[in-house]
Amino acid sequence: MRYAIYFTPAKDDPLTQAASLWLGRDAYEGRDLAVPTDTGLAEDEWRTITADPRRYAFHATLKAPFALADGKNEAGLIAAVDAFAETADAFDVPELVVAGLGPFFALVPGAPDATLQEFAGSIVEHFEPFRAPLSESDIARRKPEKLSEPQRNHLYRYGYPYVMEEFRFHMTLTGPVAEDRRHAIHTLLTERFAAFTGKPRRIDALTVFVEPQRGAPFSVLHRVPLKENQDRRAFA
To answer: Residue 235 domain-assigned?
Structure first.
């Protein structure tokens, strides 16, 4: 069993609903949804490009999936997430845009955001005691020889290469898309998610996701709101 600490909007948020329909999975109910019929894509192409993000469900990674360290348990993790949320203020990302990250597409901030970077880094550090060390096979799957030196250091230190200065907030919408299809898919997603781009997105909660066994779909286990209406932001 593995856990992850993600940001995802509330179950009834229109963005959650739109993304769940696009990906074909409702993480809150832990079930797959019908194949969408309004994408303009062949079903095989839709299944191929959404396969990876469908398993992980709609989210932005803050603390990447991890097995619990010896002496830690689920109840303790949830209690720690609740305690952290009591100390951290909600805040806005000024805008989201649909963008390509390498061969896949995601909703990302329109510009670098120092508050968001600090927030994500604080979560990586704070919950590190809950993470079991990676196995040699886990490390090998990350292909450390292909990572930059900072990314390799983060992989060995935090179990994930894309943290701290390497972190980029993204809410994944596709897996790899063939180069000759990227323009069409980008246009489709830009139109499909137009209601959610170019405007602020509130980062207002932490959500614990769970993967019951390796390779199984992730589902929402626990969601806790961050503080609202505070003048100062504190990241414990």
So the answer is: no
